[in-house]
Amino acid sequence: MENATKLEEVRTMEYGGTVSAEHEENEGSCCGPSCCSTDVENGLRAGGTAPEAEAETDDAARLKELVREKYTEIASQDKVENQASCCGSGGCSVEVYNIMTEDYTSLEGYVADADLGLGCGLPTQFAQIKAGDTVIDLGSGAGNDCFVARREVGETGKVIGVDFTDAMLERARTNAVKLGYVNVEFRKGDIEQLPVADDTADVVVSNCVLNLVPDKNKVFGEIFRTLKPGGHFSISDIVIDSELPDPIKSAAEMYAGCVSGAIQKEEYLGLIEKNGFKNVTLQKDRAITVPDDILQRYLDEEALSAFKTSGVGIHSLTVYAEKPATA
Question: Domains of the chain: which residue ranges?
Fold first, then answer.
């Protein structure tokens, strides 16, 4: 959703009022739900008879509610459960598939209790974080990327994780206390309106989160606002290179599973440039294959065969870009 007024309507309706730009009180999280059907999902499929603008607002609210509900659920799960499908969820696939996540265990600063098997890349590996940097992690979950970033910034830097699911924030804060980190902070907030002041961060990272957000353009604008001049981001996310079949696009659990909310690769990169970033660089591009047993939930045999021969590509990208040092 690109219209800021409509976005504010969603935020007011869902969270019961407006919030300050400095520290919001919203809910939700990052990537990896279970795929059980819920009332929220059924509501998304059902749509409504409201006028177009109102329906758009309602759909955005339902999507945020779906994400919040799903990631609250997985906050209590371990890595094995969350790797069972898609972006890391329990119950979607009949076998354990690790089709999007990548292995963090070799990275310095890795904390097993913070690794829920979520995400679709290793953005902190590519983020060029230096000692003393301030780093913001969008959709920080249980703190996985934040603790890897903490190893890089050291005691003189700072790491700010932003998430809008209470259960994830609680888990991340508990991990930080166990580790004795006083310069890792987890803030509750919506990444479409970050609870962070202008020109705060040297580096922004995010792992498989923007595909879950209705207004991706707004998020890139917030990244630009919160980066210092000359700062940069490294983000891993899911994109597509052609249209997905309608049954997949309209399935709520595939949205929460990081697939149907993905946009075209060129559109994604275009939003980055539109918001003023320079030196846009693809650091990694990896094809994602969704297992048949997941696709069969939405496609009949004929449609599944057509999809597999259509050439439609689902990709995990890690992309880097810089905020100009001068206006």
Answer: 4-322
